[in-house]
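Reminder: ligand-aware prediction takes two inputs, not one.
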Amino acid sequence: MTVPVQFTVNGQEYDLQIDPRTTVLDALRDKLGIMSPKKGCDHGQCGACTVLVGERRVLSCLCLAASYDGADIVTAEGLGTVDELGEMQQAFLEHDGFQCGYCTPGQICSAVGMLHEYQAGMPSHVTPDVNASFELTDGEIRERMSGNLCRCGAYVNIVAAIREVADSQTAQAAQPLPVPEKVTP
Ligand code: FES
Ligand code: FES
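Here is what comes back for the chain with FE2/S2 (inorganic) cluster:
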């Protein structure tokens, strides 16, 4: 039995007939040949499969493709081209934010999604006061990226790359970050 699924991936529309048990990760890699999302653990524990759905980062190994019918998906390939890298891709390159590179597409997608979350005022586990404005410290970056593992240990350079993009976006925004809404228990 198969079900019809329609995706937009990196701006291109696809119509698929898939087994309803197929994950987004397997649909991207096996059906569409989009190979940047990596299958590290296949259990939601390493972040290598991270892609963006809209501006939200998701672990594609945990998403059933049939549930994402109509989704607008962006993988690391969709964030720039070889001739014109996206700003996060360029920053990873300049800061040597990768060694083997296996985790890198997921790290880059996660970093882009994480900055959207921060800019939307979403606190993290290490945010000192969830009811106040807060800085994107290196501690915040590390916590927010903690779902993306790198067996090569390129973490220091990954933080530096994300820091550069975050600082650049903050300067461009030229306006204070929104104060998160009060969280009621
Ligand atoms: S392959 Fe998805 S989290 Fe590891
Ligand atoms: S660069 Fe090798 S796993 Fe991260």
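The chain has two domains: 3-78, 87-173. The pocket of FE2/S2 (inorganic) cluster (ligand 1) is lined by residues 39-42, 44-49, 59, 61 (CB under 6 Å). We will return to this case in the review session.
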